[in-house]
Write a structure and sequence with these properties.
about 500 residues, alpha/beta, five-stranded mixed β-sheet, two-stranded parallel ribbon, 26 helices
Length: about 500
């Protein structure tokens, strides 16, 4: 967050952090936070943020409250009417206060309590979705504005901001408007009759923990849905063409997980500009995210036909398609650009997934001729040798792929499996753990880990892995047998 603020031409940034060790920890994440704590504009103050804000005599242009979850003891005091009153008094005339909140493990009544308490503390309020279940409340003393021409100029001059937007899948600053959900009027209608959270009653302090672990995001979204409203800002004349408007909104809706709405928006964009490959690619991404892989693959193929330069993004999408659909996309990609490496690897991998080793080999060998030391090629060669049963040669290729920079779950799964087949149990456990961290629901790799741990005479860890498999797949008979072999019951 501090890094994001630092991308703007602000003069001073105060970071209020109650735990001093966080500053030490931040140094390990310099690549992500840009070593922003070394920025001369930044002052780190190891103290309680609320107490500091009450005591400091100056006013602020922007106050960002990014606390922990309100079910943690003491945190609910940063969601009270009293705290918001303090924050409001510390804002300059054009000041803005903004706070993070979430809808997961949060009962509808608790969410409505936070929304009502916040919205009645500031004369002007807006409510924004971020990614998936994260939201942003923005309160101000003056009416809020969205000055797209000015913001677009800042955006074009900020490589860090453009990189962050790219990570979110947003092509332009205009897409931010697609995160808007409602204003003060709609929030108060949604929260009508809700309790207030105050220092005296501390309601959230005691109610929030009761929802810990509950799946509430979908329920809260359904409750929010009737109150959603378009953002109140629009250019005169409009800032972007109608098709770009729908495309930008679709990008943001997709980034925040509202894929039904995102699909409707991008289909409006496609209807207005059917020859735009970006629109078809986004439509493909949304459809695949909804597990509508057949129309998703068709949309991806259309994007490639319109613009062969989209090949890398389409290839990334192909990994999430079923084998038959991925096969068609890879063939289209190959037709669009025969010099591109990835379609050959993709076609070989699809054949291996179908247990067609002889069909896979020509594709993978062609990729080997093109770039023999490419990590993805070495990975494919390793998987090919493993399918043939030559595990020593498979390990050689897979280790070379890893050394070349490959860090995918596919690599760790293939390498861990090969180690297990060679009875290199310790290596198998460590490598498979990396794969499991990327694919947490992969029971096959957890089963291999359990077997390896049992062979290493580490029964307690093996038991845990078998129980993890059964937690994910209660009908897994092999995991049950593994537990029995350890003398354990289930």
């Amino acid at each position: 967050t501090v890094k994001a603020v630092g991308t703007f031409p602000v003069q001073k940034i105060e970071v209020l952090e109650i735990e001093p060790a966080i500053a030490e920890a931040a140094a390990f994440f310099g690549a992500k936070n840009g070593d922003v704590l070394k920025d001369p504009r930044v002052r780190l103050i190891p103290t309680d943020g609320r107490n500091y804000l009450m005591a400091v005599p100056r006013l602020y242009d922007l106050i960002i409250s990014e606390p922990s979850n309100p079910w943690i003891a003491g945190i609910a005091s940063l969601f009270t009417r009293d705290f918001y009153a303090t924050a409001r008094r510390k804002l300059g005339p054009d000041g803005v206060f903004t706070q993070w909140i979430h809808d997961y493990s949060m009962s509808p009544d608790d969410l409505r309590m936070v929304l009502r308490t916040f919205s009645e503390a500031f004369p002007h309020v807006s409510f924004w979705n971020l990614q998936e279940s994260d939201f942003l409340l923005v309160g101000s003393l003056k009416e809020q504005r969205f000055d797209y021409p000015r913001l677009a100029k800042i955006f074009s001059g900020s490589p860090v901001m453009r990189e962050d937007f790219n990570d979110l899948g947003l092509s332009d600053l205009y897409s931010v408007l697609g995160f808007y959900r409602m204003g003060r009027k709609e929030i108060l209608a949604l929260a009508e009759g809700a309790e207030y959270n105050t220092d005296d009653n501390a309601r959230l302090e005691f109610s929030a923990p009761r929802s810990l672990g509950r799946s509430t995001s979908d329920l809260n979204r359904k409750i929010l849905e009737p109150f959603l409203t378009p953002p109140p800002w629009k250019g005169d004349p409009p800032w972007v063409a109608p098709d770009r408007h729908h495309y930008g909104f679709s990008e943001a809706l997709h980034a925040s997980g509202w894929d039904d709405r995102a699909l409707a928006e991008v289909e409006r964009a496609v209807a207005l500009e059917p020859k735009n490959a970006d629109y078809h690619l986004l439509r493909a991404q949304i459809l695949v995210a909804q597990e509508k892989t057949r129309p998703g693959s068709k949309a991806a193929e259309t994007a490639l036909e319109l613009d062969g330069r989209k090949i890398k993004k389409v290839m990334a999408l192909a990994d999430d398609l079923y084998t038959s659909e991925a096969h068609g996309v890879y063939l289209k990609a190959l037709a669009a650009n025969p010099a591109e490496l990835i379609p050959y690897i993709g076609l070989g991998t699809v054949a291996l997934m179908r247990n067609r080793v002889e069909e896979a080999e020509p594709w993978i060998r062609k990729a080997q001729q093109m770039q023999p030391q490419h990590p993805a090629v070495l990975l494919a060669l390793g998987r090919l040798e493993a399918a043939r049963g030559d595990f020593p040669q498979a390990v050689a290729h897979l280790e070379a792929s890893q050394k070349g920079g490959e860090e995918s779950s596919a690599l760790y799964g293939a390498l861990g499996t090969a180690y297990a087949r060679l009875e290199k149990w310790s290596e198998a456990v460590d490598v498979l753990q990396k794969g499991v961290m990327m694919q947490r629901k992969n029971t096959e790799w957890r089963m291999l880990q359990a077997e390896a741990l049992a062979r290493l005479n580490r029964p307690r860890e093996a038991e845990r892995k078998y129980r993890e498999v059964l937690a994910l797949d209660p009908n897994n008979g092999e995991a049950w047998k593994g537990l029995k072999s350890l003398g354990k019951s289930y």
